[in-house]
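can u pls check wat happens w/ adenosine-5'-triphosphate
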Amino acid sequence: MAELTLDHVTKRFADGGGDIVAVDDVSADIDDGEFIVLVGPSGCGKSTTLRMIAGLESVTEGTITLDDQAINDRQPADRDIAMVFQSYALYPHMTVRENMSFGLEESTDMPDDEIDERVESAAGMMGIDRLLDRKPGELSGGQQQRVALGRAIVRDPAVFLMDEPLSNLDAKLRSQMRTELQRIQEDLGVTTVYVTHDQTEAMTMGDRIAILDDGRLQQVATPLEAYHEPANQFVAGFIGEPSMNFFETTVENGRLVGDGFEYPLSEETQESIGSTDRVTLGVRPEDIELVDTVESDHDFRTVVDVVEPVGSGNNVYLAFEDSEEASELDMDESRTFVATIGGLRRVEAGQPAVARIPEDAIHLFDAETGDALR
Ligand code: ATP
């Protein structure tokens, strides 16, 4: 069993004039055997959270518990936690075998033959059994990371902590290692907290993802929940590629009125926004269709600004025909919106297009607080 709980955890760093709140009142329950991904932009507090769990950083306020025992004051070595870093942190003068066995030799009185057995088994799991007698300098980056992961596995810990372990690898190797890591984590059933700033990695790897911004936890949810039911505008914009489009609107007589468009709402949707009068309309690029003719009041005349081919299709940047942007010839990318369109439809910059934005695909946020309204 390894259930990890963060209860109102805060980390403040003293910084000359004032304090930096790196982690702000974060609470989360991580289940036994769960793979949870901590994701968010640079500087949001991911590494600090992980380092507090590992015991490499003190906790300013709050409690971290492992199986109902507070571990705030436990030394890192006494936490039964293994951490894997982005920089592999291997000892250059030791062989792979020595790198993997060193921790157990130093901190336990485990017999040599059992240590050997564990090293061989972890090396087999990571596919590095032929490299055991080499030194890190004789290995590729991918192989070194396998050694670092193997070294964590050898310890057979209650919890794995991983801080961007794949970010030094090239794209192809990274996606291969993602699947491999997931398989190994599932086989071993070890509770894992994995930090990344890469939302694709978070979406594909985590049983659940915890999204942080500015030290605050925004949402803990399965990847699909975070994608379909983001708790707020930050999560909505962070998850998904290209990012969700946002339009500032005011609510007038059951319609969202924005720059160059009016979007009528069904009664049910009107109820969900209550008396909020400034609403941010969110639409994912993949939920916008390009059609031939305007058939409903959720179809909009637009002008194509830029077409960006992305292999399987195109990202098409559009501006509402009646918006200020469209009338200015130098349409500015930041003021257009993007639709992801399958490969078959031909669209060209400068041409008119009809964008269909189905009501069941829209997201609505309180413009003031950013909270999701439905
Ligand atoms: P990245 O993805 O860039 O690694 P992160 O989400 O892991 O970022 P942290 O490294 O946890 O972010 O940093 C969170 C905040 O705390 C940042 O504002 C950072 O500057 C600050 N911080 C981190 N460590 C210290 C420290 N030792 N002293 C002062 N401030 C710190």
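The first strand starts at residue 4 and ends at 15.
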